[in-house]
Design a protein that fits this description.
- 2 copies of one chain form a homodimer.
- Chain A is an all-alpha fold.
- Chain A has one domain: Farnesyl Diphosphate Synthase, CATH 1.10.600.10.
- Helix content of chain A is 71%, strand content 1%.
- Chain A has a two-stranded antiparallel ribbon.
- In chain A, helix 2 packs across helix 5, helix 5 runs parallel beside helix 8 and helix 8 packs antiparallel against helix 9.
- Chain A is globular.
- The interface between A and B is large, with 51 and 51 residues.
């Protein structure tokens, strides 16, 4: 079980500390992405520039740089592949924001809010095309293949999630499949390609990919819980939007399963009528010890992630990757314990 | 000037005659695309199967097979690259149909009408991803690079067209740039890759690409004129939809330029109020000899296409490619002379 941070334990790494060693890498990525604007046709450069302004945590590039870590060397190959995965990620965010009718992301207008959904669909396509064009600047087809297959899986996960909107019979198994596809897949390919392009052996590249797959699942569980327990100001969006849009994520699926059979129908009715806000749901989750079960799922994934790296503990990327999972753990703990 | 077909001239090739030599190629492509369904995640196979049902003329695969023609040999490489360009084309059609709110294509529900626009955006992304995954089955990055760059240009053309909706000051130069990007680009890459993968020299592959670029421009001029002069039953859509959605294509741009300055403003007002149907516009086009100028632009493009092939007249692909341009010419003539 998760407990509040004990003072005798080492302080979990802050995000800034984790990023510090890769500041030069992230700066190189920033310049590289800025330069990409000029690669697009003149007709759409303003739109592309706006689309690239979205600066999240850039977790996927971090996974590239940590997966391929070699004494802090900023290798042009890693910067390029980090740009590839970040462009794919940005393209999927732009398409997601259209589908969710989202108007704000990181406190800026979404591309669809600013330029309309038509331009947003198409610029997402253009960013994805450019990602694959960059992928074909590598000497072999490895990067093209890995990125295009991953993107197909990300889309399949998103589509499956769309099909299952409003379906409370969605099983936990199906939930885990969806988040494996829509989130963990691109996490996985990022560190796998990072390790491989940095010249590490295939078995470590595979392990780095598996580590990030588990980390991605854990991260999505965190993100789904944050939709109920998060701090609205901090995450910059309204809580409970997943359920409002019919997405049954882990906390609600567990809650639903734990409700007495007689109350399940009433619960669904109240969900459909929009009568349950985030605060109501959190109360119910406490009553039925939902957060403990969600925490347990989260911890299992992180434990699997850590275990995968065990045999490679001596390699330089491993402490970096572990820092990242410790950071995700600390974020989760703050959320789950604070509630 | 275009005149009605003179009986002493050779009959222009019918589409069926042109396709006859590549029937085995097209069948191989059909099987290949059917088999692709199983490559997608189980979650989305029904949706993918439906998305692949759209059977247009498959002009881009024809350009692959003719550009790489070698005595009728059905080469697996050409079938694969034909599938790549067709998947990219289908993905763009699916996204276009969302943006245009289209509900029917080839007399079937569009993907967005059947499955909703969310699924349609995402399955378009998935088809495009799969196209690039297939492109990475070639031994070198050539196909990935060519297809991803072309797709980026197609998107740029579509975006530019979107930005210019309702803009009657759109110049002819800008119109030609848009259709070069959105249509001619994928035509061009199809025959260029066909020729290159079939082992023809780089200078012929370049020429095949240029031929198809001009053919693509000519084809789009034909398609834009058909939106006013076509047979509704035959083309299966309402005439005049381009103007209704604010797309100023060549016939209207020429008409607008030829209107006396005093009438231009009134014309735009009537367009915006939706007072001009296709029949009105065709009358105006006749009054101002618009069709002759559109025909002249069309003929110039086809002449450029033919000229590019001149130095390679002895190569097997050339008569096949010429048949295709003769077919597009005959289609255009039927339209322009019939009106």
């Amino acid at each position: 079980m998760l407990t509040a941070q004990n003072k005798s334990q080492p302080r979990p790494p802050a995000f800034d500390d984790i990023v510090k060693p890769v500041v030069p890498h992230m700066q190189a990525l920033g310049s590289f992405l800025d330069d990409q604007v000029e690669q697009f046709e003149t007709d759409i450069r303003d739109l592309v520039r706006y689309s690239l302004q979205n600066q999240g945590k850039r977790l996927r590039p971090l996974l590239v740089f940590f997966g391929g870590w070699r004494d802090g060397v900023v290798s042009p190959e890693l910067v390029r592949v980090a740009a590839v995965v970040e462009l794919v990620h940005l393209a999927t965010l732009i398409h997601d924001d259209i589908l969710d009718d989202a108007t704000l992301r990181h406190n800026s207008d979404t591309v669809s809010a600013r330029y309309g959904s038509t331009a947003a669909v198409l610029v997402g396509d253009a960013l994805f095309s450019q990602a694959l064009a960059l992928a074909s600047d590598f000497p072999t087809v490895e990067v093209c293949r890995a990125v295009s297959l991953s993107t197909r899986r990300v889309c399949a996960g998103e589509i499956r999630q769309t099909f299952e909107r409003g379906n409370a019979d969605f099983s936990l198994e199906e939930y885990f499949r969806v988040i494996d596809l829509k989130t963990a897949e691109l996490f996985s390919v990022s560190s796998r390609l990072g390790a491989s392009l940095a010249g590490y052996e295939a078995d470590f590249a595979e392990a780095a990919g598996k580590f990030s797959r588990h980390l991605g699942v854990a991260y999505q569980i965190f993100d789904d819980l944050a939709d109920y327990l998060g701090d609205e100001d901090k995450i910059g969006k309204t809580l409970g939007t997943d359920l409002a849009s019919g997405k049954f994520t882990l906390p609600v699926l567990v809650l639903f399963q734990r409700l007495p059979r007689g109350e399940q129908k009433l619960f669904l009715q109240r969900v459909r009528r929009g009568e349950l806000n985030a605060a109501h749901l959190v109360e119910l989750m406490k009553d039925y010890a939902v957060i403990a079960e969600v925490s347990s799922s989260f911890e299992q994934e992180l434990a699997k992630a850590e275990a995968v790296l065990e045999p490679f503990a001596g390699l330089p990327p491993v402490p970096r990757l572990r820092n990242l999972s410790q950071f995700v753990l600390s974020q989760f703990q703050r959320l789950a314990v604070g509630s």
